[in-house]
């Protein structure tokens, strides 16, 4: 790949120092002074690049690898050519993530759009808003009356911060996002176009047909170290609050309905929809495009497979999949039975589907 000016290489860090930073062991001590500058996939890694391997399936990529070092565990290390140093760790995926953070710190959150920091004269800030020192506000942002924004936070171009919203310190609110009726913790990242705190979808039958809108007077509470992807929508509560727990990471284009309570350190992948008043425990992982019914509970550390339809409660520590979602062992058995029936049907028809 040609030189990437969006994320230029690091000026260089010694392999021995990088190993200390990521909790790995440098096997070849003679390579301690070699410099790591960037990250790359195994097949095209060159001098200065760090890459990682998790599986023997990638061994063919080593033929073209010229990396400064490979992060891997002891089962992969014997496969690595002798000219490439090994950074040995029991947790290569985590160690590589830490290496990327160290070498490309600027890529860890959306960057500012202008080279000049500070508060733009083209931003609109209500006189009753309160901004701590070192807050950045880019052009065309609007900050409402009574809003409070903590030190070190950056408000991107075109962002709307509603009246009374409180945002903590060291947050990044990216271009075009809107935050209403919300309390946001520290070190939160909100990506472009996210919509937070608008009223949820709630209606009652009208006396003459049609529907009457149910008032939504709750808030959105976003705890510390949460990341929310581009285009994601989080509705405020009806009368209680919608809550996103500490350390939870939410992908792009996720819909979270009113009164949903999501626990700490969850991972929710793109296009997931969670209907109102559902409770999601701590450490839950939900795969892409899964649909979660309202008024149910997903237990701590449960895992939901991609494109599943979750209609009822999921116990803690369980893995569920399918439509309707059920224990993964049951889902896989059902899939195997259906596949076998289709295969037998084809055999009986001589492979003719006409």
Automatic annotation (TrEMBL):
Record's catalysed reaction(s): a UDP-3-O-[(3R)-3-hydroxyacyl]-alpha-D-glucosamine + a (3R)-hydroxyacyl-[ACP] = a UDP-2-N,3-O-bis[(3R)-3-hydroxyacyl]-alpha-D-glucosamine + holo-[ACP] + H(+)
Active site positions, chain numbering: 258
MF (Gene Ontology): N-acyltransferase activity; UDP-3-O-[(3R)-3-hydroxyacyl]-glucosamine N-acyltransferase activity
This protein's UniProt keywords: Acyltransferase, Lipid A biosynthesis, Lipid biosynthesis, Lipid metabolism, Repeat, Transferase
One Gene Ontology term from the biological process aspect of the record: lipid A biosynthetic process
Domain UDP-3-O-[3-hydroxymyristoyl] glucosamine N-acyltransferase non-repeat region as annotated: residue spans: 37-99
Pathway: Bacterial outer membrane biogenesis; LPS lipid A biosynthesis
Stored SUPFAM superfamilies: Trimeric LpxA-like enzymes (SSF51161)
Pfam families reported in the protein's UniProt record: Hexapep (PF00132), LpxD (PF04613)
Keyword Transferase among UniProt keywords: yes
EC top class, as a word: transferase
Oligomeric and partner information: Homotrimer.
NCBIfam families: lipid_A_lpxD (TIGR01853), PRK00892.1 (NF002060)
Family to which this protein belongs: Belongs to the transferase hexapeptide repeat family. LpxD subfamily.
Stated name of the protein: UDP-3-O-acylglucosamine N-acyltransferase
């Amino acid at each position: 790949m040609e030189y990437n000016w969006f994320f230029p290489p690091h000026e260089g860090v010694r392999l021995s120092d990088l190993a200390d930073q990521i909790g790995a062991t440098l096997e070849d001590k003679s390579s301690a002074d070699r410099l790591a500058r960037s990250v790359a996939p195994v097949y095209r890694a060159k001098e200065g690049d760090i890459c990682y391997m998790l599986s023997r399936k990638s061994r063919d990529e080593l033929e073209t690898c010229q990396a400064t070092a490979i992060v891997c565990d002891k089962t992969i290390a014997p496969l690595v050519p002798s000219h490439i140093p090994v950074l040995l760790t029991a947790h290569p995926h985590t160690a590589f993530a830490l290496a990327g953070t160290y070498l490309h710190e600027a890529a860890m959150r959306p960057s500012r759009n202008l080279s000049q920091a500070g508060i733009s004269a083209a931003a609109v800030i209500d006189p009753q808003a309160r901004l701590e020192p070192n807050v950045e506000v880019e052009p065309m942002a609007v900050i409402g009356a009574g809003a409070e924004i903590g030190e070190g936070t950056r408000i991107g171009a075109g962002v709307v911060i509603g009246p009374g919203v409180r945002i903590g310190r060291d947050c990044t609110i990216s271009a075009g996002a809107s935050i209403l009726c919300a309390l946001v913790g520290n070190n939160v990242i909100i990506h472009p176009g996210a919509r937070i705190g608008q009223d949820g979808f709630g209606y009652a039958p009208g006396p003459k047909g049609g529907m009457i809108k149910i008032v939504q007077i709750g808030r959105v509470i976003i705890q510390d170290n949460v990341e929310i992807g581009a285009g994601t929508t989080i509705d405020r509560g009806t009368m209680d609050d919608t809550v996103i727990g500490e350390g939870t990471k939410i992908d792009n284009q996720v819909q979270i309905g009113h009164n949903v309570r999501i626990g700490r350190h969850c991972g929710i992948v793109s296009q997931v929809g969670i209907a109102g008043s559902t409770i999601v425990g701590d450490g839950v992982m939900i795969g892409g495009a899964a649909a979660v019914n309202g008024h149910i509970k997903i237990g701590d550390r449960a895992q939901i497979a991609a494109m599943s339809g979750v209609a009822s409660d999921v116990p803690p520590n369980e893995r569920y999949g399918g439509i309707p979602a059920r224990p993964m062992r049951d889902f896989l058995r059902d899939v195997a039975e259906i596949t076998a029936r289709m295969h037998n049907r084809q055999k009986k028809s001589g492979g003719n589907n006409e």
